[in-house]
Write a structure and sequence with these properties.
It comes from Streptosporangium vulgare. It contains one helix and 22 strands. It has 340 residues and is mostly beta strands. It has one domain: AttH-like domain (AttH-like fold), CATH 2.40.370.
Amino acid sequence: MGKFVDHATWPLRPEDEGTHPAGPEPLWSESVYLDFAAEDGSLAGYVRLGLYPNWNRAWYWACLVGRDRPTVLLADHHVPLSVPGPPERYGAGTRPGVHAVRGEGCGGFRAVHDVTAPMRSFRVTLDAGAAAVLDDPAMAYGDLGDAGTTSLAFDLEWRSGGDPYPYRFMSRYEIPCEVAGTIRVGGTGGAGAEEIAFSGYGERDHSWGERDWWRLSWLWSSGRLDDGTFFHGMRANVGFEMPWPCFTVPPGGETEEREGFTAASEFGEGGFPSGARLEVPGLPMTVVPVAFAPVAMTSPDGEIARFPRALCRFEAEDGRSGYGWTEWHQPPGWRGHGWR
């Protein structure tokens, strides 16, 4: 790995795996997503660390979903800004791309995000004492204090399964990955927890710059088909069409950019998507949500945005199928944003 797609209009470097200087915008942020799904769709989850230095806080999300499982969700929007480290693990010096996070919400949690090899490997360790258990994912839009709780722990590594894909028009890149490690869920304080040896696939996403969650709606999707093909597509509702970013990675092949990604979505009760059609050029497919792990976000001015992210089954027109994640971001007034 390490070859960058040559369409990039900005110089993606291994150093970009680290943290970037904050811009002056109040909602400037740096965001890292890491999602995963078993090949058969039986188990999946994601982690997100969002740094908001001009807002003096971080957001931390982690979840686990699966067949015949309730949604387990950790969502803390009042985390102290993460710091490089910890020194006891990495010595007196620290490496770019390593963050230790401690939160007091949700019963308290600790997490370490570690770029173990730039553009090739990323490890997450998480230990959460009281993640919420949601029998109905819509509970995520209310007071999580009303939900039951369980412990949740990840020790997972994302190893690159394709070249990094930098977007043309924003400071953001995606990397399709193989994911493996250990998951523990259940019990209290880890006692009586179910321990799962996980092996599957996913994608990691790193971006930095201004992001106003309460003004712009979008769809983002990534997955892996049963023949080993990774794919990704993203579009935002900005009021005009443009060549939205998308790519595929064939089995054992190189990342291939495909211009002209579009998506059409249908929504049901509570704004939860009931399905979508993705037009990845040369690879059209339908999207069937399997399990939701949504989050609600409140702006500094008190506006609320909803974020129904879902484990999905993808069914390509040529008969291939697979699993991955799709998100439909919904700020206030999102139904008037020209969703397709």
